[in-house]
């Protein structure tokens, strides 16, 4: 049992607990959000659910080496990293850089992602916090992906195919 992958998976789980609460609350308090805002938030929740599966499988693989198949871990971590970066970009692009405490002076359209609940300032702050934790989760998944690539290479996985030079007979 290696310590670094185990610590990374626990960090991912902590970020996922926080993200599930933040984005889940945004979904729960949705009153009249636009369709594009709902789509962005629902995609983010999909990424969180996918990340839960990858993080829990990674935790089991870190605890029990017999489950840790390097190629499977590489694929799972790569998918989670890709979807997490997409969700981070979507949230950041849809939110922008508003002053959540003073939304009256911001001139966003009625289809803006932070509009759509009884308390738009709270929704704005929760989406801002969700964006930050999505980027932190990306850093954790990127580190896990790096370890998965190193593990895959250590077990003999290679981009090159064919015999090595010591196997060639002249």
UniProtKB/TrEMBL annotation:
Q: How does it sit in the membrane?
A: Multi-pass membrane protein
Q: Does the keyword Lipid biosynthesis apply?
A: no
**Which PANTHER family is this protein grouped with?**
NON-CLASSICAL EXPORT PROTEIN 2-RELATED
Q: Which organism is it from?
A: Neurospora tetrasperma (strain FGSC 2508 / ATCC MYA-4615 / P0657)
Q: Which residues form the MARVEL domain?
A: 4-145
Q: One biological process GO term for this chain?
A: protein localization to plasma membrane
Write the protein's name. Answer: MARVEL domain-containing protein
Taxonomic lineage is: Eukaryota, Fungi, Dikarya, Ascomycota, Pezizomycotina
Domain of life (superkingdom): Eukaryota
| Coiled coil (residue ranges) | none
Q: Write out the annotated subcellular location.
A: Membrane
């Amino acid at each position: 049992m290696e310590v670094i992958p185990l610590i990374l998976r626990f960090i991912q789980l902590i970020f996922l607990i926080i993200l599930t609460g933040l984005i889940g609350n945004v979904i729960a308090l949705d009153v009249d959000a636009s369709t594009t805002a709902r789509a962005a938030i629902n995609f983010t929740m999909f990424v969180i659910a996918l990340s839960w599966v990858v993080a829990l499988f990674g935790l089991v693989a870190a605890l029990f080496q017999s489950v840790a198949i390097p190629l499977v871990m590489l694929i799972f971590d790569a998918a989670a990293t890709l979807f997490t970066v997409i969700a981070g970009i979507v949230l950041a692009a849809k939110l922008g850089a508003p002053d959540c405490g003073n939304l009256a002076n911001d001139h966003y359209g009625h289809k803006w992602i932070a509009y759509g609940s009884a308390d738009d300032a709270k929704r704005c702050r929760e989406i801002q916090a969700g964006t930050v934790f999505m980027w932190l989760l990306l850093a954790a998944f990127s580190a896990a992906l790096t370890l998965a690539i190193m593990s895959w290479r250590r077990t003999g996985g290679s981009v090159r195919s064919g015999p090595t030079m010591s196997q060639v007979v002249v």
